[in-house]
Prior knowledge:
Elements: H1 3-14, E1 36-37, H2 39-49, H3 53-56, E2 57-59, E3 64-66, E4 69-73, E5 75-77, E6 79-80, E7 83-84, E8 87-88, E9 91-92, H4 100-104, E10 107-110, E11 113-116, H5 128-157, E12 166-170, E13 173-176
Parallel strand pairs: 4-12
Antiparallel strand pairs: 1-5, 2-5, 3-4, 6-7, 8-9, 10-11, 12-13
Amino acid sequence: MSLLPFLAxxxxxxxxxxxRCGSCCRETEPGSNLVMVGQEEISDIxxxxxxxxxxxxxxxxxxxxxxxxxxxxxxxLRRTGDRCRFLDESSCQxxxxxxxxxRTYPFMLDENDLTIHPCEGxxxxxxxxxxxxIAQDICRRYAYEQEQDEKIRAIVRSGTIPAGRPVVIDAxxxxxxxx
Length: 179
């Protein structure tokens, strides 16, 4: 069975309709609302909002300390308290350019299987066209994340992580992190 029809069928079985409750944008358990974002996604948000990179994203919070190396992989959307900084009541201020993870929530492709995160919108009626669109977006997200991951792996394999200062490794390279 082809992946897209398989995913669309699974989405139809699970059912989904966004209730615009904003729960996915709030921290319900530690780290539950971390939204990983790539440079292209950050650039789109910058263009839409006029905000700077630092106003939009912060380094992924889990740091790796190995001797005098201090690094993390990638960026997450900034949060204000327990919520995404772009959540206004229960609506997204960056909806037209929201990141892939937000576009496809509560679904995620894990290898060739569909993972469904807890969400009040599951179990709701989903139209056939909507299920197919979500399935396409899930595949696009997966391809984007795989591309980002491979670029990061190549940077790590190059052995060029600088010692003595905290850095963020993303698909574009190594960037100093000043907190």
